[in-house]
Design brief:
Elements: H1 3-16, H2 33-39, H3 55-68, H4 71-82, H5 88-95, H6 99-123
Length: 124
């Protein structure tokens, strides 16, 4: 795994996909960044966990995970970071693969996410 991407995905999940009963940090109304800025009166708020990942980067990760990752890699990312109630073994079983295959797919997902983030920063 890529440490920075792992941390970014953990923060993405905490900010936009918290456990049931906890309101997402980015959920200013409709889930858009504009709605979040309106709800915060124009102030961009960092994660309450002292995150190095801003909410706008979490929004980029959300887009990459949901729109740009292949299905198998998306599935392992969702299971690993947003399924708060499952044990590791249950995550592998939900993805229909062995532990080794699960972590190979997760590493591939990290590489793809890193590549998309780098390309987005270059384009900006």
């Amino acid at each position: 795994m890529i440490r920075y991407i792992d941390e970014a995905l953990q923060l993405w999940a905490a900010e936009l996909h918290p456990p049931d009963g906890i309101e997402p940090l980015g959920g200013g109304g409709g889930g858009s960044m504009l709605a979040t800025l309106m709800a915060c009166r124009g102030e961009l708020i960092r994660s309450t966990r002292g995150s190095r990942v801003l909410l706008d980067e979490s929004a980029e990760i959300e887009l990459i995970v949901n729109k740009l990752l292949p299905d198998k890699e998306r599935q392992v990312v969702i299971e690993r970071y947003t399924n708060h109630n499952s044990l590791e073994r249950q995550c592998w079983e939900a993805c229909g693969c062995s532990e080794a295959q699960f972590y190979r797919r997760l590493h591939k997902a990290h590489l793809l996410i890193e590549g998309h983030l780098i390309n987005r920063k270059r384009a900006a």
